[in-house]
Amino acid sequence: FGAPDAVRAKPLGAFDAVTATFLYRNGPDIRVQGGWLASGTPFSMAFQIRTTRALLEMEPNGLMLSGLEGKRSSVQLPNVDAYAEQLSYFQQCCDNGQSPDRCPPEASAAAVKIGLLLKQSVDLDGEMIKCVL
Asked: Whole-model pTM above 0.90?
């Protein structure tokens, strides 16, 4: 969706976690929850993408797609270690003297700036912060 026009975030629970909203002038509002949880909390990851026509969910048992008619099906993903793939790609770029195409430094810098804006919003009790990158 690209860089949002504005963000807002509030703390989520007692640990270093937030619920954040990315606001787009002509697009969807995207809500994200996450953070560092209490020691001993098992790692987990999930997401939901809801549209007017379908629901895509990443669950512990895999990626699932549900249509309007209620049919639910599994979406097959490559059986690879995503972290190992990222490191391998980075090493290939270094070995070949190439700038990365997949996550260029500018995109990484923008992600850090958005993270800092989210922190600012948390510090200001969820105030909406315009995103100027």
From this structure: no
